[in-house]
Amino acid sequence: MKKNILKSDGVQAVIASLICVVLGVFVGYVILLIINPDGAFEAIVAVLKNFMTYSRPDSQLRYFGNTLVKTIPLILCSLSILFAYKAGLFNIGAAGQYCVGICASLYAALAWGWSWLPCLLLAVIVGGIYGSLVGLLKAYFNVNEVISGIMLNWIGLYLTNMILSAVKEEASPYTINIRTANPDALIPSLGLEQLFNNNQYITIAIPLAIIIAFIVYIILDKTRMGYEIKATGFNKDAAKYAGMAEKKNIIMTLVIAGSLAGMGAAFLYLTGFEQYIVTSSQVPSMGFNGIAAAFLGGLNPIGAIFSSFFIQHISSGGAYVDKSIYASQISDLIAAVIIYLCGFVFFMKVVMNNMIAKREANKAKTGKEGGEN
Fold this sequence. Notes:
Blueprint: H1 9-35, H2 40-49, H3 57-86, H4 94-110, H5 116-141, H6 145-164, H7 178-181, H8 205-222, H9 224-234, H10 236-241, H11 246-269, H12 285-296, H13 301-317, H14 330-342, H15 345-372
Helix pairs in contact: 1-2, 1-14, 1-15, 2-13, 3-8, 3-11, 3-12, 3-13, 4-5, 4-6, 4-11, 4-12, 5-6, 5-11, 8-9, 8-13, 9-11, 12-13, 12-14, 13-14
């Protein structure tokens, strides 16, 4: 009997994600209509076009590269979220882990003059240590990871502000420009920038992030460690009864999740694309956008690559709306709606399975009646 492709969990996840995207964009368009119907269509098109707004191909290529640069940390943050989620943990602390990754990589580059690889490794280690704090509180004191993660987000933010104040520019809230202060700390491009109209921010971080996504996929789906992590997520007590070290798995999962978020921070700030503002009063949105990317990608590491690009694409596209009429945050609103709708993915899959079952039942009934005649 031929298998119905619509029964595939992967296909259903893709369909559900596309429904979330379409509905999210539609809700954003409706809100634009409510604010001012005259320019609503042009605004939503601008959000969706992003770098395609430019008419010259060389400009499109350059700004496409900028979108990719900001997609890379989002991929790593989404991998952080989904990796923890596989163990039944909601790593909302990814934003704080991302923050301390910024702190470690920039301080090592600007204060100590390290080259890019040690700076990157330090960000990974510090992010992992920061993630372990959430894991230890969860494993040994049963502190909800959402509560501890949120508190550590703010602690991480203000610690980063304090530490990086030592390497900020004079009479400016921005950290010293890494491109002029320590060029050795910049992640190498190996000629990749030539593919994007000599965009100086294009580096090997792009292929490395994709490779890491595949490694995470292999770990979760093809290794014993991944099996134990998912088993712990399904039922912690059952995993313990089966002889698995559930406390160790919880801590290890959050160490890896924190390391991924810290790596994402280094992948962005060691390109010189952004300078950190030491007066920041908000936790970096990259960690929270990672939630949208993780769930929109069906909690699949490969899906996270494409969903992260889409989320960053519309986030960057918000800069092209008419500011005299609409706020650029319309793209953030669309992303927020998508996050909300992703909570109904399981419901959408149930609906699809029920529709398929009903259709097959009717088909079988029709065939049986035809055979009797």
